[in-house]
Amino acid sequence: MVVQSAPATAQTAQPPLAAQAALQPPVVAETVPPLAVVQSSARGNGVEHFMQALADPNERVRSDTVMQLGRLRVQQAVDPLAATLAGDQSPAVREAAARALGLIGSPKALPALQRAAQVDNDREVRHSAQFAIEVIQTRP
């Protein structure tokens, strides 16, 4: 006795290619985090969260954020803090940025601090920028 296998039926047929594509999950390209995020996450302090908070619409959040970056002495925050010092609408945030740059102590911050000490329209910002300059210049 010879047994033959049953021919393929509609139950075992593959769906059309268009239907197969629709069933597949979308391909998502892997994103590579910026170097600053990789470096900061290695510190374990959530520094990347602070860097993002520099753009928060709340003045108090921005002010607290720049001070925290200064207290942590986050070197990769020098450029973002210099930009905050030069361009934030809030004098309180700019003044905090000047103080934070002084805490970090990087000579890289000197041009931004010198500019703020000379041309910022707020007296407290100018004062804090000048003080930060003196702190940076007197460090060994």
Q: What keyword list fits this structure?
A:
140 residues; mainly alpha; Leucine-rich Repeat Variant
Descriptive account of the structure:
The protein has 8 helices and no strands. With 140 residues, the protein is mostly helical. It is globular and about 30 Å long. The relative contact order is 0.10. The longest helix is centred in the C-terminal third of the chain and has 16 residues, at 123-138. The chain has helices spanning 17-23, 35-43, 47-53, 59-71, 78-87, 91-104, 110-119, 123-138. It has a single domain (35-138), classed as Leucine-rich Repeat Variant.
Short description, anyone?
By secondary structure, this protein is mostly helical.
Overall helicity? 55-70%
Overall strand count: 0
Question: Counting H and I runs of at least 4 residues, what is the number of helices?
Answer: 8
CATH class: Mainly Alpha
Strand content: under 5%
CATH topology: Leucine-rich Repeat Variant
The secondary structure category is mainly alpha
Order of helices and strands: HHHHHHHH
- Which regions are unreliable across 5 or more consecutive residues at pLDDT < 50? 17-42
